[in-house]
């Protein structure tokens, strides 16, 4: 089979903050910004890669109940609803850049006992973003 990852989804609750973080802090391209009824779906991704992250408004999820929406909002605020793992060849340099841009640091770069060096921070919606060293 010839299957590749095309997109993954992360919730967002502030269009401008999401774009500023993913475009201006991480250096991703904004590939699409679609608005409907005051909500925005934003597609971002690293330049030169085909995979994308779709930042979506969780309240637009079909069939979501008020109690589910409240639970998602609470989990987003705590950073426990969604996450993504990214990788770089320059973990310490990227970490310094993120820290200088006031990204919410959860974990400074560290050598993990399971063999990777990584760090963690949160995006403006509270999503956990883990970043690990390549090679």
UniProtKB/TrEMBL annotation:
SUPFAM superfamilies in alphabetical order: Glyoxalase/Bleomycin resistance protein/Dihydroxybiphenyl dioxygenase (SSF54593)
CDD domains named in the record: VOC_like
Domain VOC: 4-134
Protein name (record): VOC family protein
Organism: Amycolatopsis tucumanensis
């Amino acid at each position: 089979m010839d299957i590749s990852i095309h997109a993954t989804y992360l919730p967002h609750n502030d269009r401008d903050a999401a774009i500023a973080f993913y475009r201006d802090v991480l250096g991703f391209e904004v590939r699409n910004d679609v608005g409907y009824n005051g909500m925005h779906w934003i597609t971002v991704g690293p330049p030169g890669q085909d995979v994308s992250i779709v930042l979506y408004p969780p309240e637009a999820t079909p069939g979501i109940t008020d109690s589910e929406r409240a639970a998602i909002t609470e989990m987003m605020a705590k950073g426990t609803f969604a996450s993504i793992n990214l990788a770089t060849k320059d973990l310490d340099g990227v970490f310094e850049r993120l820290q200088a841009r006031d990204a919410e640091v959860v974990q400074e770069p560290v050598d993990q006992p399971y063999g990777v060096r990584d760090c963690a921070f949160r995006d403006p919606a509270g999503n956990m973003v883990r970043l690990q060293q390549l090679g």
